[in-house]
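queue> pop job 88
queue> type: inverse folding (structure -> sequence)
queue> payload:
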């Protein structure tokens, strides 16, 4: 059936002189024009022109077709092409994949297995393998989901995370179990600028990166002493001038 569908599509493309993708659209437009009304609700069913191994002889019913037809011929053609493409993309494969994953969870996790039917107690279900606390099952599902999305490789050599572009390759279990995020580089705290007082008693803050080199106490005292001695020598009066001043002051009335 699948082979006949492919050969029929190839012959259709050769007759119309188009490629396979355009042939699918043209065949879908023809099937849209031949849509039949089935059932008491008057639903219009679309017979899918392409058979698939998972969905052979598929028929589609668009229940939400509420858009009015366009009045412009160009817009009407685009609208019909869009409707035909929507019918071509209709599938329940994603639902089947979900149920496939659901069954794998049921069969892979002991805590998620179906209850066992008892033959001696009026066919009651026995849930002896289930978890006593639901939080335990939630943790097991998180572990299973992580392994399924990042570690398990399918037939195409990719994981679900690789198909979504989240990872570049399969992730090893050791990288997940022993994962530790990189610690950010530690930055040294900036030290407060030291306050330095000079010989005149004024206070200033040192803003350089390096600590200021303060002079030793002994060197500072010797420097101050030498400065004061030189000032005394320069300002000291002569002996004669000093004597005349004393004599003049003594004779004052």
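queue> result:
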């Amino acid at each position: 059936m699948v082979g006949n569908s492919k050969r029929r599509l190839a012959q259709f493309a050769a007759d119309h002189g188009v490629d396979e993708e355009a042939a699918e659209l043209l065949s879908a437009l023809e099937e849209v024009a031949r849509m039949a009304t089935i059932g008491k609700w008057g639903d219009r069913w679309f017979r899918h022109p392409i058979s698939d191994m998972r969905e052979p002889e598929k028929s589609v019913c668009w229940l939400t077709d509420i858009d009015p037809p366009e009045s412009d011929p160009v817009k009407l053609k685009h609208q019909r092409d869009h409707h035909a493409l929507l019918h071509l993309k209709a599938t329940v494969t994603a639902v089947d994949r979900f149920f496939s994953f659901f069954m794998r969870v049921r069969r892979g996790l002991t805590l998620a297995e179906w209850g066992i039917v008892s033959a001696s107690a009026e066919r009651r279900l026995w849930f002896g393998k289930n978890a006593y606390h639901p939080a335990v099952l939630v943790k097991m599902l998180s572990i299973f989901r992580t392994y399924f999305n990042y570690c398990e490789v399918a037939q195409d050599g990719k994981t679900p995370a690789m198909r979504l572009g989240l990872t570049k390759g399969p992730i090893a279990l050791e990288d997940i179990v022993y994962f530790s995020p990189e610690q950010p580089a530690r930055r040294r705290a900036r030290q407060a600028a030291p306050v330095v007082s000079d010989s005149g008693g004024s206070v200033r803050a040192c803003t350089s990166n390096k600590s200021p080199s303060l002079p030793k106490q002994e060197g500072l005292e010797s420097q101050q002493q030498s400065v004061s001695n030189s000032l005394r020598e320069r300002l000291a009066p002569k002996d004669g001038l000093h004597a005349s001043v004393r004599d003049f002051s003594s004779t004052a009335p």
